[in-house]
Write a structure and sequence with these properties.
Largest sheet: 4 strands, antiparallel
Distance between the termini: 25 Å
Radius of gyration: 13 Å
Helix content: 25-40%
Number of strands: 4
Shape: globular
């Protein structure tokens, strides 16, 4: 995931990311690590934590695969 933030983050910093995906009323909150950076734009890798975070990441993957398939 790429995100823009008005804060200074360093490579390998761990953060919590919360967002609401399109077509979903439920927010997803997962832990991530900064893997790359360009100015205030950061590339974040999701980290599998406990069962709850794993379920949220799986839900996000399912939603993205459904919304990106050709008609």
């Amino acid at each position: 995931m790429a995100l823009t933030a008005n804060i200074e983050l360093s490579m390998e910093d761990q953060i919590m990311v919360e967002f609401t995906p399109p077509y979903s009323g439920l927010p997803i909150r997962v832990k991530g690590t900064v893997r790359n950076r360009q100015g205030y734009r950061y590339g974040i890798e999701f980290l599998r934590g406990g069962t709850q975070e794993a379920l949220q990441i799986d839900r996000l993957r399912m939603m993205l695969s459904v919304t990106t398939q050709p008609e």
